[in-house]
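[Q] Does anyone have a clean structure-token version of this?
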Amino acid sequence: MKKMYITNVSLQGKGELLKFLYEPNGFEMKNNRETSFPIIPVIASRQEKGDEIKVLAIRSNHADTPDNYAVFLQELSTLGISEEQVKEINIAENQSSSESLKLLMTVLEEIPEKSLVYGDITYGTKPMAAILLYAMSFAEKMRNCEVDGIYYGEIRREDKKVTGALLYDLTVLKLLGDLIDEMKDMGIRGMREVIHGLIGE
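[A] Here you go.
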């Protein structure tokens, strides 16, 4: 099976990129492990023998990202994924509207046909995270693929001390958007009532 994993590279300073055990919030994940990149346990949980794996790493030209990218490659190697399977996209740290659109289209073009796609929006600037989230929303409409997971890792802190880390599965938000599009196309009225009924409100 073709599987595509997409993530932004952390902007954290040298020595600040720490490892955490991201506990899945409201879902189960086999093969969880401590990591600096939440996409790593996602890959470990999804990869199967015979998979054709491609990884897309989006890296801004921030001074610390080369070191963080090297850490990412090292963590991938523990899963048997080589640097040759990774496509690195370098972008300007300050994104203009035209550069953001270019990045969005580049991400979409890199997604293989007939693949399962997983995205991690934990790292990068807020525009980078938003671009990746939009790419996950557009992928199935523009590519012959299936978005199977969208994730966000959160470091929990109290009084400036780390108390743990959580991993959120945001895929349901994309599925809700798809459902709204379908209901609109079908001319269904009372969409809000339908949605409230589905989520149990």
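[Q] Thanks! Anything notable?
[A] Helices lie at 39-46, 65-77, 97-110, 126-142, 171-185, 191-198.
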